[in-house]
## 1
Amino acid sequence: MNWITNYVRPKINSLFSRREVPENLWTKCPECGQMLFHRELADNLNVCNSCDHHMAITPRERFNALFDGGVFSEVKVPEPVTDPLHFRDQKRYPDRLKAAQKSTGEREAMLVAEGEIGRTPIVAAAQDFAFMAGSMGMYVGNAIIAAAERAVKLKRPLVLFSAAGGARMQEGILSLMQMPRTTVAVEMLKEAGLPYIVVLTHPTTGGVTASYAMLGDVQIAEPNALICFAGPRVIEQTIREKLPEGFQRAEYLLDHGMLDRVTHRKKLREELITITRLLMGKTPAVAGDLPAPKPEPAPAEQAATEAAKK
């Protein structure tokens, strides 16, 4: 055996021909540890193929899967005063906002859009947990009010996807005031006789749970979502007792009458279509009920049409 030919040369060649592999091609499931290819994970709506664990999904990705053909238009949200308290901890509040905007590519923690699901017009709002833990600040309050006003104006149901760590501490009492503001917005929908459907995703906690997230006409949750005001660790430390298995998870809340349904993310669109059409008094949706494409005119017909126009 020639040691230089069989070992040294291949080793040197491998070092010089090695290619850098992007780190974002694979995602590790936090539940089962399975490595998931990013395209397969995206096609599966960020649900683990191995254990069915529901991972975080951005509002835009959610809306692309929710609306017919992924087509929707954003609803303008009024901009609040930036840094009203001039808050500073380890960083200035505006610096934290800029960092969150850069990492997520979004203006704030909630996106409002309008479009059709199963040819049923709706207004939808979704929180982004990646943006400062989806915390409820003045912008989120403005977004919910804008969504409710748009739904009332167009006479459409409002579907809201919640995901938040609670109120935004950098806005202090102004953040807490969003609880009654959003409650009034929900009341606007009820007075107009329009459905308000809430989909609680992991996690929904704090003042968000204590206000608009639990005021829906229909309460749906994704599997194993944490839904609470105070977290289980805080409760255990306070009462000094072990909590039941699965406490404050979606399935536990369903068993105790706080939710109407726990629905898999891949089945959520069809369920929302059925519920919205039922509450709006429409006939059931027909599978494949889309307008047929217009047939292209024959060359002779097209020439005759153009000649007639001239």
## 2
Amino acid sequence: MRTTTRPLNFSASGCVPSPQTSPRSNTMDFPALKEAQGKLNAARKSLADVFAEAGPTMDLAQVKSIDGDNTNKVGWIRTKNEEIEALAREVEGLEQVQKAARNASQYEAPAPQAEVKEREFKSLGESFTQSLAFKGRSGPVGPAAHLDIEMKALFETGGGGGAGWTPETTRTGRVVDLATRPIQVTDVVPLGSTAQQAVVYMEETTFTNAATEIAEAGTFPQAALALTERSSSVRKIAVYLPVTDEQLEDEAGARAYVNNRLPFMLRQRLDSQILVGDGNAPNLKGFLNVSGIQTQAKGADPTPDAIYKAMTKVRVTGRATPGAVMIHSTDWQGIRLLRTADGVYIWGNPSESGIERLWGLPVVVNEVITQGTALVGDFQNYTELAVRRGIDVQVSNSHSTYFIEGKQAIRADMRAALVVYRPAALCTVTGL
């Protein structure tokens, strides 16, 4: 019985374990960042005020804070949006947030195409057009010529119905993957590591600040603090694939192909669990099912306004700095195609690719989140994917009757816990 083990760590687009990290301090504590964040918030508020004036119908004629006609007002909006974009990138640079690159699928170089040999026999038509009778004709009369015609079966390629064989056709070596959802969410969540079966931490659940001024010999006021233990269990995601011995031995690219696709299956499932996992063992508890996260209903507001209000809740109630917006592709389409009452596109002309940012925040467009719901949050400071063990791929013939059937079971699994340190740092936007 043969058993081999191949541990594969998460890639940049998946989950490369990094040292244990704790929730970082609020980014507003740094002077340079505080100044840049202040400018960014001021620019966002300025643009939000203009949208509030325009109303749900985006009627720029109602905007009195900007001089000029609608064209001038749209120009001002775009300029302000570009300013927000530049400020947001400056803030991100100060935070030194780096996104890891995705695993690149590696395939073997295409094999050279086999050359097809020329036909060895001439057809009756070819023999006639190359004969003296055809070439030496003059007018309706020409010299006679004999054609050497083989009366036996013509030895030609099998495709012509003759006695020969079909030419060899060599595959290029390229494998076109099935159209499936890519990894879209995982990169937003910072990675940590854990050596335990659960991530256990303490949360300050009571903070009563009784500090006040007192007179000489006065009684000191009493404050109150309380901590509560929180825990997030490590869960396993796994998959396996049966493969014959001959497939692995005879096809050089088979093992590389399987070792690429199985880990992708795990990362794709993890990507989904991070957002919508229901928390019932053995599922992770995704962001949308965490107790204590905030919510903001769209109501009659334009979608950008509702998302801005969610950002405000994250700042005011969650005392956090929103860092990204997760939104379904269909809902993002509605925002990207927003137009004023006279038909001018708000976020840029159709000839422009446009930026995937909203109020300066990067937009994580995906098909994991429920359509009609967006999620705003400070993911970098108050969420973490704690990896107990990265992706491990193993091959064995000990499964069932695989040994006597000449089969191999290739399995892959990983273990991780998803932690939300401060639920109020996240806020959903519903009714989009």
## 3
Amino acid sequence: MTTAADPRRPVTVTAELDAPLSRWLWLVKWLLAIPHCIVLAFLWIAFLGVSVVAFFAILFTERYPRALFDFNLGVLRWSWRVSYYAYGALGTDRYPPFSLGPEPDYPARLDIAYPQHLSRGLVLVKWWLLAIPQYLVTGIFTGALHGGWCPGGLVGLLALIAVVTLAFTEKYPRDLFDLVIGLNRWVLRVTAYAALMTDEYPPFRLDMGGRERPVTA
């Protein structure tokens, strides 16, 4: 089930840097995350199928069926928590829950405001034609030329630099954390747009830090 989200900001990404962090746990997080990766592989297949159904629903009714929206939001939330725990940020040692829900107590959170109306025209072009410039940018961030993300590219490199620094200084560099979250926030905005969950085009803007910037009227 979705939580309340500000419609003026369709995609809200927040993250809290846990402290203290283990100096060496990051070396095995790839192994610890395998059960999540197995489950997520099947969930992302379902995500794609749901997105196809949603495409036709929007095309004919201008609405994204709420149950389908909540499911895909759950998959994105789950993926973001695992990415944050593992090599998309390495910002917490708390093991991610196996959950499609919002999990407000977990340090990485994602909300997408449910759209009451979506454009029939945009649904035909936004996920491929209009999103191409965004894919080119986020491909550098993640190492994958699509709307999702994987533990590679610039994000993975910066997260690795951060935890190597942590291993020697016992501190995760705060400026580096803010940058890593900003890059992930950009990717998640593009993912939500490409998945037809919002008509608002993602800004070409790096909003760094664990908290979203205040919405101005």
